[in-house]
Amino acid sequence: MRRSYAPYSRFCVGAALLTREGRIFQGCNVENASYGLTLCAERTALGAAVAAGHRRFTAIAVVSSGQTAPMPCGACLQALAEFCRPDFVIVTAAARNPAAMAIYPLKDLLPRAFRLG
Ligand SMILES: [Zn+2]
Q1: Any catalytic annotation for residue 42?
Q2: Which residues lie near ion ligand 1 (Cβ < 5 Å)?
């Protein structure tokens, strides 16, 4: 989250993606002046992991600078569903509010992921 690039929203997000082999890949949101090009922390972590040769994951933790636990957006859920089983664990938390934490299986947040075929 500290490495987040969020000059427009000031909403900093960090993600830690756990592989089935026990490695952790970090990500952060990367905003852009053309807002639609902004990358979420979940997808930058996923990209880092895949670029390093990992494609099997068990969990992701997502932490934001807000007061409430952030919910992954639909695009990130779909990106995770490409590589993760329905029981993949998503932990969300607010850095400044320890009481704001939630845990979800991927299947609860994206019960009908898009699949080809
Ligand atoms: Zn997202």
Answers
A1: yes
A2: 40, 73, 76
| Tens-digit pLDDT profile for residues 76-108 | 999 999 999 999 999 999 999 989 999 999 999
At the topology level, CATH places domain 13-102 in Cytidine Deaminase; domain 2 (3.40.140)
Q: Is the pTM of this model over 0.85?
A: yes
Burial of residue 16, with CB atoms counted within 10 A of its CB: 0-12 exposed, 13-18 middle, 19 or more buried: middle
Q: By C-alpha distance, which of 26, 29, 94 is closest to 60?
A: 26
Domain ranges of the chain: 13-102
Q: Which residues of 63-97 are buried (b: 16+ CB within 10 A; e: fewer)?
A: bbbbeebbebeeebbebbbebbeeebebbbbbbee
Residue 75 Cα to ligand 1 midpoint, Å, equals 5
Cα 27 to averaged position of ligand 1 atoms, centre (Å): 11
